[in-house]
């Protein structure tokens, strides 16, 4: 289908225009994915939360409340976009776009399936890390420009938190890079042809996976690390003053960020769209191969996101100094030791 | 509103021990804030995230109940009391009734005494369940809130059947009870006790043993026994510091003199001890209900009192133990149908003003933890 | 206990607890203290080892317009002995010299209570560290719990 669209474009336009229009189309598709993903994830989150909390969750709008989030989105769109009087208007309005743009750029790298990837550059993981840290600029801007002390405290917390946990995210990925020997997402997945890295990489790979999920949860500002928006302390943290669409941007970006962490985890550790194979069991492997790649991929992503929701709805929130202690005194040294261990494993060719 | 905020002077510059120069600043926490549980305004002076000073501003829902009491008859006053601490309404009702009965020298029937005690303990359980849920929510574990409400719902159903209301119950009247208990009361209460005995360990599994929760509460906001006494802190909050202040033991009223229960006394005095004290108190309440529920004596549920009660001239003080601490009713009567002066000594009032003492030097997040372990109910404080 | 206090402060008036002879008394022993001796008595009650009234559980203000004074009632308890005692301190009059010494440094619990009494009855507690209105707004006129208080808008008919 993609080829036929491309063929149609090339027959009707000059090559330059065809290429440009192709990018526009891809961009539009990803914007759609972004919006739909946000809506679906909000619904899923609410249902999962309800499951943990002995209740039903949204049930009124549509069958089993499936259109609840669409109704919510319409409500948010219709709301008045308030800008506080004393706010720095330019930065205040700019901040949500920083957050959304950063998230959207990361989303472009998602390898949904074999060749189903919009933007497969050779420094994929590096690009992901770089882009995802731009989001924090938006949060800091939002906190500063709102002219609200709660927002400012929330933003400063967020800044400290994301800068710290970025280290752990990066280091745990670097650990895995020793195995994958490539930064390109599609190649990382191809390198797991013989089995997922989490199974083949011995203990250090598993440790790196756990560290990555913890640090990734922290980087997305989700509970138990949701200090920047701790509603019992800071009312709503950095987005206290935002309303309507601008608030929706922050809100959706949080969910898509969570999706991106799950994407990276499933790509690097769980083999992306690679099916699950068990040694020489040909029949079993054939059945597994029968399930299409995108389904495998989404299944893994959903599994990791469920883990993250599980954390959120079970644990109390950490305190800011405990949060930083956890990173700098526990996760970071552990990560460095794990990196050395992994280097040793790779050197001795112990990995399968 | 404007006058209440501190003057906007140049913020003081602080030299920190590590040589960093920072500015202190003010944050208004409340009156609209998710964790003040009602309309409490705290003016915080903050250095970074560390609290330098807390100044509580109360009175946003002051309804001049004490002034209204000077107008009302004693039967009417009972109906005002459950609007104060709406989570301990039966105990508040009971306090006024006991004071009036003491003044009239009326002996309440045994049946009423036992039912009053069961109701009080059920109220205490409901209050602690709500507190437990809110405590978790304040610390970011929203799930606890719904677990707490699941079990509170059963108690509310029992109350609804017997008293007709779910929140501001008016069931205890001078002379006994307003009307006899519902035929289902015993059966449903027993079912609840059975249910809750299984569910209470779940509370421990979900929150008490959680490492993050422990780190957030242990050693936070330590209240010494001496300070608890000096500040007049009562209830589980004070008993967690070792201050033996349980009125049920000190001056037993209703049927408390014949039930076997322990006064929970802990040593640590930190937030976790206050948490633990309430969890243990729930077990004691279950114990009391179990002892009484099968032994409700038959007979009248009230003694006849006049429709318009006139107390003899004099002064009457009655203390009861509510879910939050010692509740006192001080009646000065001049022999008329309404009191000359009536003072409610509400437990939350004294408990609130220890906050500055506890939370100085703590982080903002600790303040939330400390405040929820104090278990404040604003209508009780503002009256 | 009573003897000990009477011995130390011979000129304060003792109102015995309710009994056959004293049907109009309260259930506690009461002492009517002149304002200038209040702090001495308070310190004596708190610091004397076998009295040790360390717990102030209630502080009430009462208006007596017919007698022409305001009164503060202090309910004290000894947490060690389990005894209660009540102090009553009266102001000179209800208007310009409605003053009493503070006890908020003796029992910190008195601090908010004294603010409340000041707010609702207008007793000025000399030496209180932070005597401002507590429940009502700062610009409120009058003291609502006084018997002659009139508020044309929100008046509760008595």
Number-wise, the strands of chain C total 7
- Mean pLDDT over all positions of chain C: 81
Q: How many DSSP H or I helices of chain C? A: 3
Q: Which chains make the largest contact?
A: B-C, 44 and 38 residues
The tally of helices of chain A reads 15
Overall number of structural domains of chain C: 1
Oligomer: heterotrimer
Helix fraction of chain A by DSSP (H/I, runs of at least 4): over 70%
Structural class based on helices, strands and sheet pairing of chain A: mainly alpha
- CATH level 3 topology of chain C: Beta Polymerase, domain 2
Poorly predicted tracts of residues of chain A? none
Mean pLDDT of chain A: 82
**What is the terminal separation of chain A in angstroms?**
38 Å
Question: What would you note in describing this structure?
Answer:
The complex is a heterotrimer of chains A (352), B (383) and C (158). Chain A is mainly α and 352 residues long. Chain A contains 15 helices and no strands. Helices cover 70% and strands 0% of the residues of chain A. The longest helix of chain A is centred in the first third of the chain and has 38 residues, at 15-52. Chain B is α+β, with helices and mostly antiparallel strands and 383 residues long. Chain B has two domains: 2-57, no CATH class; 65-382, Cytochrome-c3 Hydrogenase, chain B, CATH 1.10.645. Chain B contains 15 helices and nine strands. Chain B has a four-stranded antiparallel sheet. Chain B has a three-stranded antiparallel sheet with strand order 7-8-9. In chain B, α2 (74-81) runs antiparallel to α3 and α6 runs antiparallel to α11. The model of chain B has no long low-confidence stretch (mean pLDDT 84). Chain C has helices at 2-8, 38-47, 110-121; strands at 13-15, 29-33, 55-64, 69-77, 84-90, 99-101, 124-126. Chain C is globular, with a radius of gyration of 16 Å. Classes of the chains: A mainly alpha (352), B alpha+beta (383), C alpha/beta (158). The B-C interface holds B 3-4, 58-59, 62, 64, 66-68, 70-71, 102, 227, 229-232, 234, 243-245, 250, 312-317, 319, 326, 328, 330, 332, 340-341, 343, 345, 349-350, 352-353, 357, 382-383 and C 18, 23-28, 54-58, 60, 62-63, 73, 75, 79, 82, 107-109, 111-113, 116, 120, 134-139, 144-145, 156-158.
């Amino acid at each position: 289908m993609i080829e036929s669209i491309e063929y149609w474009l090339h027959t009707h336009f000059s090559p330059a225009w065809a290429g440009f229009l192709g990018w526009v189309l891809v961009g539009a598709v990803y914007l759609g994915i972004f919006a739909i993903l946000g809506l679906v994830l909000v619904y899923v989150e609410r249902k999962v939360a309800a499951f943990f909390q002995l209740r039903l969750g949204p049930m009124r709008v549509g069958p089993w409340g499936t259109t609840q989030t669409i109704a919510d989105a319409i409500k948010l769109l219709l709301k008045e976009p308030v800008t506080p009087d004393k706010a720095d208007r330019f930065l205040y309005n700019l901040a949500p776009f920083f957050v959304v743009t950063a998230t959207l750029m990361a989303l472009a790298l998602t390898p949904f399936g074999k060749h189903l990837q919009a933007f497969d550059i050779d420094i994929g993981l590096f690009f992901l890390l770089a882009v995802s840290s731009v989001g924090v600029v938006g949060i800091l801007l939002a906190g500063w420009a709102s002219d609200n002390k709660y927002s400012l405290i929330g933003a400063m917390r967020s800044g400290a938190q994301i800068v710290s946990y970025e280290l752990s995210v990066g280091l745990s990925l670097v650990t895995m890079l020793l195995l994958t020997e490539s930064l390109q997402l599609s190649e990382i997945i191809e390198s797991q042809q013989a089995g997922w890295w989490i199974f083949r990489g011995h203990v250090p790979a598993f440790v790196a996976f756990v560290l990555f999920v913890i640090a990734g949860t922290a980087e997305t500002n989700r509970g138990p690390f949701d200090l920047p928006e701790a509603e019992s302390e800071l009312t709503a943290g950095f987005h206290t003053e935002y309303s309507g669409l601008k608030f929706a941007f922050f809100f959706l970006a949080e969910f898509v960020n969570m999706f991106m962490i799950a994407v990276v985890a499933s790509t690097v550790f769980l083999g992306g769209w690679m099916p699950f194979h068990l040694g020489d069991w040909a029949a079993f492997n054939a059945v597994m191969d029968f399930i299409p790649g995108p389904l495998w991929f989404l299944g893994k992503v959903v599994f990791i996101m469920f883990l993250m929701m599980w954390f959120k709805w079970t644990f109390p929130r950490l305190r800011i100094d405990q949060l930083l202690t956890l990173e700098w005194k526990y996760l970071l040294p552990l990560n460095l030791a794990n990196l050395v261990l992994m280097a040793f494993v790779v050197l001795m060719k112990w990995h399968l | 509103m404007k006058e209440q905020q501190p003057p906007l002077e140049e913020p003081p510059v602080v030299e920190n021990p590590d040589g960093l120069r920072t500015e202190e600043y003010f944050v208004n926490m409340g009156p609209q804030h998710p964790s003040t549980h009602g309309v409490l305004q705290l003016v915080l002076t903050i250095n970074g995230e560390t609290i330098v000073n807390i100044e509580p501003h109360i009175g946003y829902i002051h309804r001049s109940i004490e002034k209204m009491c000077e107008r009302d008859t004693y039967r009417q006053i009972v109906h005002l009391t459950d609007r104060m601490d709406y989570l301990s309404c039966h105990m508040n009702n009971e306090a006024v009734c006991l004071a009036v009965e003491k003044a009239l020298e009326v002996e309440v029937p045994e049946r009423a005494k036992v039912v009053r005690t069961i109701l009080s303990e059920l109220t205490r359980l409901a209050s602690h369940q709500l507190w437990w849920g809110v405590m978790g929510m304040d610390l970011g574990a929203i799930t606890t809130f719904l677990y707490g409400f699941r079990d509170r719902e059963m108690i509310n159903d029992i109350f609804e059947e017997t008293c007709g209301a779910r929140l501001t119950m008016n069931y205890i009247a001078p002379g006994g009870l307003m009307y006899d208990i519902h035929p289902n009361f015993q059966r449903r209460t027993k079912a609840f006790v059975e249910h809750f005995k299984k569910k209470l360990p779940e509370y421990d599994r979900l929150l008490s043993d959680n490492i993050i929760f422990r780190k957030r509460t242990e050693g936070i906001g330590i209240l010494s026994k001496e300070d608890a006494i000096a500040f007049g802190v009562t209830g589980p909050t004070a008993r967690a510091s070792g201050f033996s202040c349980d009125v049920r033991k000190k001056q037993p009223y209703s049927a408390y003199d014949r039930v076997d229960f322990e006064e929970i006394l802990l040593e640590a005095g930190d937030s976790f001890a206050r948490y633990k004290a309430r969890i243990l108190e729930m077990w004691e309440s279950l114990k009391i209900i179990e002892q009484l529920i099968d032994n409700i004596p038959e007979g009248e549920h009230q003694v006849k009192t006049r429709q318009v009660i006139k107390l003899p001239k004099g002064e009457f003080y009655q203390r009861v133990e509510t879910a939050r601490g010692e509740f006192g009713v001080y009646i000065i009567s001049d022999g008329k149908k309404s009191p000359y002066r009536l003072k409610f000594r509400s437990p939350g009032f004294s408990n609130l003003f220890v906050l500055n003492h506890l939370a100085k030097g703590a982080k903002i997040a600790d303040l939330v933890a400390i405040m929820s372990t104090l278990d404040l109910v604003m209508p009780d404080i503002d009256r | 206990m009573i003897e000990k206090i009477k011995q130390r402060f011979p000129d304060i008036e003792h109102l015995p607890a309710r009994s056959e002879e004293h049907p109009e008394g309260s259930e506690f022993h009461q002492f009517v203290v002149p304002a200038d001796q209040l702090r001495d008595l308070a310190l004596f009650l708190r610091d004397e080892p076998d009295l040790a009234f360390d717990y102030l559980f209630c502080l009430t203000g009462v208006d007596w317009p017919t007698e022409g004074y305001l009164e503060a009632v202090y309910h004290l308890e000894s947490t060690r002995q389990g005894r209660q005692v009540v102090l009553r301190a009266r102001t000179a009059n209800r208007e310009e010299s409605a003053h009493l010494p503070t006890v908020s440094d003796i029992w910190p619990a008195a601090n908010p209570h004294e603010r409340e009494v000041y707010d609702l009855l207008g007793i000025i507690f000399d030496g209180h560290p932070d005597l401002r209105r507590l429940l009502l707004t700062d610009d409120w006129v009058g003291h609502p719990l006084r018997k002659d208080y009139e508020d044309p808008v929100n008046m509760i008919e008595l």
